[in-house]
Amino acid sequence: AQSVTQLDSQVPVFEEAPVELRCNYSSSVSVYLFWYVQYPNQGLQLLLKYLSGSTLVKGINGFEAEFNKSQTSFHLRKPSVHISDTAEYFCAVRRAVLGGSQGNLIFGKGTKLSVKP
Amino acid sequence: DAGITQSPRYKITETGRQVTLMCHQTWSHSYMFWYRQDLGHGLRLIYYSAAADITDKGEVPDGYVVSRSKTENFPLTLESATRSQTSVYFCASSAETSGGAGTGELFFGEGSRLTVL
Hints:
Strand content of chain A: over 45%
Number of helices of chain A: 0
Structural class of chain B: mainly beta
Number of strands of chain B: 11
Largest sheet of chain B: 7 strands, mixed
Helix content of chain A: under 10%
Mean pLDDT of chain B: 90
Oligomer: heterodimer
Largest interface: A-B, 26 and 29 residues
Distance between the termini of chain A: 41 Å
Order of helices and strands of chain A: EEEEEEEEEEEE
Number of domains of chain A: 1
Shape of chain B: globular
CATH class of chain B: Mainly Beta
Distance between the termini of chain B: 34 Å
CATH topology of chain B: Immunoglobulin-like
CATH class of chain A: Mainly Beta
Number of strands of chain A: 12
Number of helices of chain B: 0
Largest sheet of chain A: 6 strands, mixed
CATH topology of chain A: Immunoglobulin-like
Low-confidence stretches of chain B: none
Shape of chain A: globular
Structural class of chain A: mainly beta
Protein backbone atom coordinates (compact mmCIF):
# COMPACT_ATOMS: atom_id res chain seq x y z
CA ALA A 1 0.00 0.00 0.00
CA GLN A 2 1.01 3.59 -0.52
CA SER A 3 1.02 6.40 2.01
CA VAL A 4 1.82 10.11 2.00
CA THR A 5 3.15 12.33 4.78
CA GLN A 6 3.06 16.09 4.55
CA LEU A 7 5.50 17.24 7.14
CA ASP A 8 4.01 20.67 7.86
CA SER A 9 0.35 21.31 8.55
CA GLN A 10 0.77 25.09 8.29
CA VAL A 11 3.38 27.25 6.61
CA PRO A 12 3.28 31.04 7.09
CA VAL A 13 5.45 33.08 4.76
CA PHE A 14 5.81 36.69 3.68
CA GLU A 15 4.95 37.82 0.18
CA GLU A 16 7.80 37.49 -2.35
CA ALA A 17 9.67 35.04 -0.12
CA PRO A 18 10.49 31.52 -1.33
CA VAL A 19 8.55 28.57 0.01
CA GLU A 20 8.95 24.80 0.17
CA LEU A 21 6.13 22.45 1.11
CA ARG A 22 7.41 19.03 2.05
CA CYS A 23 5.99 15.68 1.03
CA ASN A 24 7.30 12.19 1.67
CA TYR A 25 5.72 9.00 0.39
CA SER A 26 5.96 5.31 1.07
CA SER A 27 5.51 2.62 -1.55
CA SER A 28 7.04 -0.71 -2.51
CA VAL A 29 6.20 -0.16 -6.19
CA SER A 30 6.68 2.61 -8.70
CA VAL A 31 4.34 5.53 -8.19
CA TYR A 32 2.90 8.61 -9.80
CA LEU A 33 3.00 11.74 -7.65
CA PHE A 34 0.77 14.79 -7.66
CA TRP A 35 0.34 18.15 -5.99
CA TYR A 36 -3.14 19.64 -5.80
CA VAL A 37 -4.22 23.08 -4.57
CA GLN A 38 -7.49 23.96 -2.87
CA TYR A 39 -8.62 27.56 -2.60
CA PRO A 40 -11.25 28.40 0.05
CA ASN A 41 -14.66 26.86 -0.63
CA GLN A 42 -13.50 25.23 -3.83
CA GLY A 43 -12.58 21.78 -5.05
CA LEU A 44 -9.04 20.63 -5.66
CA GLN A 45 -7.19 21.41 -8.86
CA LEU A 46 -4.00 19.91 -10.19
CA LEU A 47 -0.80 21.93 -9.78
CA LEU A 48 1.65 19.44 -11.24
CA LYS A 49 2.38 15.75 -11.57
CA TYR A 50 5.33 13.39 -11.88
CA LEU A 51 4.83 10.30 -14.01
CA SER A 52 8.32 9.52 -15.30
CA GLY A 53 11.33 11.17 -16.93
CA SER A 54 12.83 14.39 -15.63
CA THR A 55 12.71 14.56 -11.86
CA LEU A 56 12.08 18.32 -11.88
CA VAL A 57 8.47 18.99 -12.73
CA LYS A 58 7.05 22.41 -13.47
CA GLY A 59 3.42 23.22 -12.88
CA ILE A 60 1.00 26.10 -13.00
CA ASN A 61 1.37 29.43 -11.18
CA GLY A 62 5.18 29.18 -11.03
CA PHE A 63 5.30 26.09 -8.81
CA GLU A 64 7.74 23.25 -9.31
CA ALA A 65 8.50 19.98 -7.53
CA GLU A 66 11.40 17.58 -7.51
CA PHE A 67 11.02 13.82 -7.34
CA ASN A 68 13.73 12.22 -5.24
CA LYS A 69 13.47 8.46 -5.33
CA SER A 70 16.21 7.77 -2.82
CA GLN A 71 14.65 10.15 -0.29
CA THR A 72 11.09 9.14 -1.31
CA SER A 73 10.21 12.80 -1.43
CA PHE A 74 8.32 15.14 -3.73
CA HIS A 75 8.70 18.63 -2.26
CA LEU A 76 6.87 21.58 -3.79
CA ARG A 77 8.66 24.89 -4.23
CA LYS A 78 8.07 28.39 -5.44
CA PRO A 79 10.81 31.03 -5.55
CA SER A 80 8.54 34.00 -4.82
CA VAL A 81 5.02 33.66 -3.45
CA HIS A 82 2.06 35.98 -3.85
CA ILE A 83 -0.90 36.70 -1.61
CA SER A 84 -3.02 34.77 -4.10
CA ASP A 85 -1.05 31.59 -3.35
CA THR A 86 -2.75 31.39 0.05
CA ALA A 87 -4.49 28.01 -0.08
CA GLU A 88 -4.22 24.44 1.11
CA TYR A 89 -1.89 22.15 -0.79
CA PHE A 90 -2.22 18.39 -1.00
CA CYS A 91 0.37 15.85 -2.04
CA ALA A 92 -0.99 12.59 -3.50
CA VAL A 93 0.36 9.27 -4.71
CA ARG A 94 -0.89 6.44 -6.90
CA ARG A 95 0.79 3.26 -7.97
CA ALA A 96 2.10 3.59 -11.52
CA VAL A 97 0.88 0.24 -12.79
CA LEU A 98 -2.68 -0.62 -11.94
CA GLY A 99 -4.30 -3.94 -11.44
CA GLY A 100 -8.03 -4.44 -11.49
CA SER A 101 -9.87 -1.30 -10.43
CA GLN A 102 -7.16 0.47 -8.45
CA GLY A 103 -7.48 3.98 -9.82
CA ASN A 104 -7.62 5.98 -6.62
CA LEU A 105 -5.16 8.53 -5.28
CA ILE A 106 -3.94 8.51 -1.70
CA PHE A 107 -3.75 12.04 -0.29
CA GLY A 108 -1.67 13.58 2.43
CA LYS A 109 -3.39 15.59 5.15
CA GLY A 110 -2.61 18.89 3.52
CA THR A 111 -0.44 21.96 4.19
CA LYS A 112 -2.05 25.35 4.66
CA LEU A 113 0.08 28.03 3.06
CA SER A 114 -0.57 31.49 4.42
CA VAL A 115 1.10 34.35 2.56
CA LYS A 116 1.31 37.58 4.54
CA PRO A 117 1.89 41.06 3.07
CA ASP B 1 -21.27 23.32 -19.11
CA ALA B 2 -18.75 20.53 -19.38
CA GLY B 3 -17.16 19.29 -16.18
CA ILE B 4 -18.13 17.68 -12.93
CA THR B 5 -20.98 19.05 -10.86
CA GLN B 6 -22.20 18.22 -7.40
CA SER B 7 -25.54 18.89 -5.80
CA PRO B 8 -26.59 20.11 -3.40
CA ARG B 9 -23.66 22.37 -2.51
CA TYR B 10 -24.99 22.79 1.03
CA LYS B 11 -27.27 20.51 3.02
CA ILE B 12 -28.44 20.46 6.62
CA THR B 13 -30.20 17.35 7.84
CA GLU B 14 -31.05 15.55 11.03
CA THR B 15 -29.67 12.38 12.54
CA GLY B 16 -31.34 9.30 11.11
CA ARG B 17 -32.49 10.85 7.84
CA GLN B 18 -31.47 9.58 4.44
CA VAL B 19 -29.43 11.95 2.31
CA THR B 20 -28.27 11.59 -1.28
CA LEU B 21 -25.46 13.65 -2.75
CA MET B 22 -25.42 13.78 -6.52
CA CYS B 23 -22.44 13.85 -8.84
CA HIS B 24 -22.55 14.25 -12.60
CA GLN B 25 -19.67 14.41 -15.08
CA THR B 26 -19.80 15.23 -18.78
CA TRP B 27 -16.43 13.81 -19.87
CA SER B 28 -17.45 10.13 -20.00
CA HIS B 29 -14.59 9.35 -17.62
CA SER B 30 -14.56 5.72 -16.57
CA TYR B 31 -13.46 6.26 -12.97
CA MET B 32 -15.40 8.21 -10.36
CA PHE B 33 -14.66 8.73 -6.70
CA TRP B 34 -16.19 10.05 -3.50
CA TYR B 35 -13.92 11.60 -0.88
CA ARG B 36 -14.73 13.26 2.40
CA GLN B 37 -12.62 16.09 3.78
CA ASP B 38 -12.30 16.67 7.50
CA LEU B 39 -9.95 18.83 9.53
CA GLY B 40 -6.87 16.88 10.48
CA HIS B 41 -7.65 14.01 8.12
CA GLY B 42 -7.22 15.50 4.69
CA LEU B 43 -9.18 13.65 2.02
CA ARG B 44 -10.29 10.11 2.65
CA LEU B 45 -11.74 7.85 -0.01
CA ILE B 46 -15.25 6.58 0.65
CA TYR B 47 -16.08 4.63 -2.52
CA TYR B 48 -14.92 4.52 -6.08
CA SER B 49 -16.17 3.13 -9.35
CA ALA B 50 -14.12 1.87 -12.28
CA ALA B 51 -17.08 1.83 -14.69
CA ALA B 52 -20.85 1.60 -14.75
CA ASP B 53 -22.07 -1.13 -12.40
CA ILE B 54 -18.58 -1.58 -10.86
CA THR B 55 -18.03 -0.06 -7.44
CA ASP B 56 -15.61 -0.74 -4.61
CA LYS B 57 -15.01 0.39 -1.07
CA GLY B 58 -12.38 2.90 -0.13
CA GLU B 59 -10.88 3.73 3.23
CA VAL B 60 -14.06 4.84 5.06
CA PRO B 61 -17.15 3.19 3.45
CA ASP B 62 -19.25 2.45 6.56
CA GLY B 63 -22.61 4.22 6.55
CA TYR B 64 -22.51 5.03 2.84
CA VAL B 65 -24.02 3.45 -0.26
CA VAL B 66 -23.17 4.19 -3.89
CA SER B 67 -24.53 3.16 -7.25
CA ARG B 68 -23.45 3.72 -10.82
CA SER B 69 -26.11 2.74 -13.30
CA LYS B 70 -24.85 5.29 -15.84
CA THR B 71 -21.27 6.31 -16.58
CA GLU B 72 -21.95 9.99 -15.95
CA ASN B 73 -23.65 9.73 -12.55
CA PHE B 74 -22.31 8.53 -9.22
CA PRO B 75 -24.67 9.33 -6.33
CA LEU B 76 -23.63 8.86 -2.71
CA THR B 77 -26.33 7.96 -0.17
CA LEU B 78 -26.17 8.19 3.57
CA GLU B 79 -28.91 5.77 4.56
CA SER B 80 -29.22 6.99 8.15
CA ALA B 81 -27.13 10.08 8.71
CA THR B 82 -25.04 10.45 11.86
CA ARG B 83 -23.27 13.50 13.29
CA SER B 84 -19.91 11.95 12.47
CA GLN B 85 -20.86 12.22 8.80
CA THR B 86 -20.85 16.01 8.99
CA SER B 87 -18.18 16.82 6.43
CA VAL B 88 -17.39 18.24 3.04
CA TYR B 89 -17.84 15.64 0.32
CA PHE B 90 -15.97 15.76 -2.96
CA CYS B 91 -16.74 13.85 -6.09
CA ALA B 92 -13.99 13.34 -8.64
CA SER B 93 -13.50 11.63 -11.96
CA SER B 94 -10.55 10.27 -13.88
CA ALA B 95 -9.91 9.20 -17.45
CA GLU B 96 -8.04 6.16 -16.18
CA THR B 97 -8.86 2.86 -17.83
CA SER B 98 -9.16 -0.48 -16.12
CA GLY B 99 -5.99 -1.56 -17.88
CA GLY B 100 -4.03 1.20 -16.24
CA ALA B 101 -3.53 3.55 -19.15
CA GLY B 102 -3.75 7.22 -18.30
CA THR B 103 -2.10 9.55 -15.83
CA GLY B 104 -4.32 9.14 -12.82
CA GLU B 105 -5.17 12.83 -12.66
CA LEU B 106 -8.42 13.47 -10.83
CA PHE B 107 -10.86 16.23 -11.67
CA PHE B 108 -12.86 17.45 -8.69
CA GLY B 109 -16.27 18.94 -8.19
CA GLU B 110 -16.70 21.95 -5.95
CA GLY B 111 -17.88 19.91 -2.99
CA SER B 112 -21.04 19.35 -0.98
CA ARG B 113 -21.00 20.63 2.58
CA LEU B 114 -23.19 18.40 4.75
CA THR B 115 -24.19 19.19 8.31
CA VAL B 116 -25.95 16.53 10.38
CA LEU B 117 -27.69 17.90 13.46
